[in-house]
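Worked example 3 (structure in, sequence out).
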């Protein structure tokens, strides 16, 4: 079974705090050359999300050829020097179809091919919020203008999303979904209990307060020796029977004399 990819802190521990999307992290999956794949938390989240959707759609995850924060390949002309830029491929898939899929997932993506370059897809995470390579902003502008992201800015007539901006990775939504999927730890449970305790206490008190008259009526009915006596009659009788409270307190059944009118109400 292939291990599920994770987003890791630079120290190798899984990310549990998703509140700062600009900080640098790494992916648990290495490049095809066994290099660590770096990026901002937002970029790696976008990459991880796209890779999992690719696996679901094609049966293959996204493979990294060159990651962000890489200055070792001169042919990249500085586009990978900082965040949000990756060279990738999807195994066993047509290059044009892979390009289309990646564009649908919010990447400014172009298939690069011979004789100018070896086959790969160069892509930039749209909506990045961090520092990127010198030419990356120009490439993103080219993408919106349906151009090729190269020095000549040639027209690109391949498929583009009808509304490119709608494809931008929604980090906040992803963040909420991740928090919803994460198991609760002891601190989370303590915070939930702390918040709910006053609410529960208030609801219980309301329920008790509402139930008191019914409870009192049941108690009075159980201690009246005249068949058919009502709680109201018992309460009236109690006013004239000083010993009732004492008897109830002692756990005895008091003898309450109740006189009834023809209508069934006790005489005052």
């Amino acid at each position: 079974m292939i291990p599920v990819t994770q987003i890791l802190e630079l120290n190798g521990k899984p990310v549990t705090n998703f509140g700062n999307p600009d900080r640098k992290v790494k992916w648990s999956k290495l490049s095809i050359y066994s290099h660590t794949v770096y990026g901002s938390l937002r970029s790696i989240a976008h990459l991880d999300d796209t890779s999992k959707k690719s696996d679901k759609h094609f049966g293959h995850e996204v493979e990294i050829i060159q990651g962000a924060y890489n200055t070792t390949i001169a042919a990249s002309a500085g586009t990978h020097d900082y965040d949000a830029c990756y060279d990738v491929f999807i195994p066993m898939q047509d290059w044009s179809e892979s390009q289309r899929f990646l564009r649908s997932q919010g990447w400014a993506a172009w298939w690069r091919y011979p004789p100018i370059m070896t086959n790969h897809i160069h892509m930039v995470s749209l909506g990045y919020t961090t520092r990127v390579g010198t030419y990356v902003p120009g490439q993103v502008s080219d993408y919106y203008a349906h151009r090729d992201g190269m020095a000549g800015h040639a027209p690109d007539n391949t498929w583009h999303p009808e509304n490119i901006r709608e494809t931008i990775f929604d980090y906040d939504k992803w963040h909420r979904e991740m928090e919803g999927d994460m198991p609760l730890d002891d601190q989370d449970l303590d915070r939930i209990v702390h918040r709910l305790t006053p609410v529960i206490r208030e609801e219980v008190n309301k329920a008790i307060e509402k139930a008191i008259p019914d409870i009192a009526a049941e108690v009075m009915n159980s201690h009246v020796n005249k068949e058919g006596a009502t709680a109201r009659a018992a309460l009236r009788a109690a006013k004239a029977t000083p010993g009732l409270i004492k008897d109830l307190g002692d756990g005895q059944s008091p003898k309450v004399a109740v006189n009834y009118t023809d209508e069934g109400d006790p005489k005052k």
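Notes: The chain is about 40% helix and 10% strand. The radius of gyration is 36 Å.
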